[in-house]
From TrEMBL:
Signal is among the record's keywords: yes
Repeat found in the keyword field: no
Residues annotated as domain SusD-like N-terminal: 90-230
Pfam families cross-referenced by the UniProt entry: SusD-like_3, SusD_RagB
Organism: Nibrella viscosa
Record-annotated RagB/SusD domain positions: 315-427
Protein name listed in UniProt: RagB/SusD family nutrient uptake outer membrane protein
Xref: Gene3D superfamilies: 1.25.40.390
Signal peptide location: 1-18
Similarity section: Belongs to the SusD family.
UniProt-listed InterPro entries: SusD-like_N, SusD_RagB_dom, TPR-like_helical_dom_sf
Keyword set, alphabetical order: Cell outer membrane, Membrane, Signal
Subcellular location: Cell outer membrane
Lineage: Bacteria, Pseudomonadati, Bacteroidota, Cytophagia, Cytophagales
Length: 457
């Protein structure tokens, strides 16, 4: 009898093919997880492998940035590429066989399975400090991935009174045999998924060291907690988490708006995906630079120029704004078409969360709560504005902060999530429109009778 692997995948690699059929679902390599993690070195290698998964094009290497941007594309960006999966997302004509929705789901659950295996193998690690750090890293990775999954594959927090709308399946044990992989699981509620995300990230923040090199540390977990609480409109907790990151003194704004995207692990970066010219998300059919860049460099064109920045959005920037003059440009593809300069080097690291975002979260939360924890909203907002060469705003409003988020964090994967949490529409689509939610992959629903599909698919 043929076994169908549902929800979780034990595969280590996913084959990529042509533009309109890029997902090859045949596992290229698999492992017996029971025998793979037998030493402390094996456990740490598994964690390193999970970080590698985070940088894959299905996750932060491309899709956890690009899909949220395309879902909120109106008056912002235009997709001009040939990849059918992305075109469906941009046009809200997504099919339940959409390759991008499918590969993101599979890769996320593969990485979650890896860290679940780590958590169940920590007894192999004798060094108490290392054991604590590896547990923190595993819970950090699991927490951020469930956060990304529930935001993409479920209705926004607050869409129902008690957040009982279907979220995603919570799988909290390792799948190490084909029999386990063939077991079915229902979708947990959005409330249950958020509870798990917060538990994982909170525990990670207590387990991880203040500084863990290029890997996740205490402040990476706290920064993601600030994002999670903000997505829930829990401003008091978002404020506390963001303030802890800022007050740590571990981070500072870079002097220029381009520095975080031209240099590795800058003082502003709280967590970023480590890449180089030999090991990156892709240079032709995947990767942020592949899709966002349209750069003519020394007679060679870099990037496909698939994501065009719409002129009306460009014109919203103050003409003196350095983010306008230094991070937006006319590309080689088309006449007078703008592109973002944030993703312009195939081998560059990918900043996932930065201090500028923490300052804007603290400013917004303080404004909504009528407080001045850590600093005044004006001080935090103007730190970001003045870095961009703009005049300060003496008495900012929440709308000022939200506008600054659009300018500062554009093209970093937050677009649809900000629109949803602030209950704004994108074009004719309301914040809670099911068309702004990705489908559960058809192959998963077909294999699992407990897995309920999202409306419209």
């Amino acid at each position: 009898m043929k076994k169908t692997f549902i929800a979780i995948s034990i595969m280590l690699a996913v084959g990529l093919t042509a533009c309109n059929n890029r997902l090859d679902l045949q596992p290229q390599q698999s492992i017996d997880a029971q025998t793979a993690l037998v030493t402390a070195q094996d456990v740490e290698s598994a964690i390193i492998g999970a970080y590698g998964d985070l940088g894959n094009g299905a996750l932060y290497g491309t899709n956890l940035n690009l899909l949220p941007e395309l879902l909120g594309a109106e008056n912002y960006i235009t997709w001009r590429g040939t990849f059918a999966g992305y075109r469906q997302v941009a046009q809200r004509s997504i099919q339940n066989t959409n390759t991008e929705a499918e590969r993101t789901w599979l890769r996320a659950y593969a990485a979650i399975n890896t860290v679940n295996n780590v958590l169940e193998s920590l007894d192999k690690v004798a060094n108490a400090t290392l054991k604590k750090t590896l547990e923190g890293e595993a819970k950090f990775i699991r927490g951020i991935l469930y956060f990304e999954l529930v935001r993409l594959y479920a209705l926004q927090w607050g869409a129902t009174a008690n957040n009982s709308q279907p979220g995603v399946p919570l799988v909290l044990r390792a799948t190490i045999t084909s029999e386990q992989a063939a077991q079915t699981a229902a979708r947990n509620t959005v409330a249950q998924v958020y509870t798990q995300v917060i538990n994982d990230l909170t525990q990670a923040s207590t387990l991880l060291p203040n500084d863990n090199g290029a890997r996740a540390d205490k402040y990476s977990a706290l920064a993601f907690l600030a994002r999670v609480y903000l997505q829930q409109n829990d401003y008091a907790k978002a404020l506390t988490a963001a303030n802890q990151v800022i007050q740590s003194g571990m981070f500072r704004l870079n002097p220029s708006v381009t520095a975080a995207f031209r240099n590795r692990n800058t003082a502003e970066s709280i967590f970023e995906i480590q890449q180089n010219d030999q090991n990156n998300a892709g240079t032709s059919n995947d990767g942020l630079t592949t899709f966002y860049a349209s750069l003519p460099v020394n007679g060679v064109n870099i990037g496909r120029g698939d994501v065009q920045v719409n002129t009306p959005f460009v014109n919203q920037y103050d003409p003196a704004d350095a983010r306008r003059t230094e991070l937006l440009y006319i590309g080689y593809k088309g006449v007078n078409r703008y592109y973002t300069g944030k993703w312009a080097d195939f081998g560059a690291n990918i900043p996932v969360i930065r201090l500028a975002e923490m300052l804007l979260i603290r400013a917004e939360a303080n404004l909504r709560l009528g407080s001045t924890v850590g600093a005044t909203p004006a001080a935090d907002l103007n730190a970001v504005r003045q870095r961009a060469g703009l005049a300060p705003i003496a008495s900012p409003t929440v709308e000022d902060v939200l506008r600054e988020r659009q300018f500062e964090l554009a093209f970093e994967g937050l677009r649809i999530h900000d629109l949803r949490r602030t209950r704004q529409s994108t074009g004719t689509y309301a914040w809670n429109d099911p068309k702004l939610v990705l489908p559960i992959p058809k192959r998963e629903v077909d294999a699992n009778s407990l897995l309920v599909q999202n409306p419209g698919y």
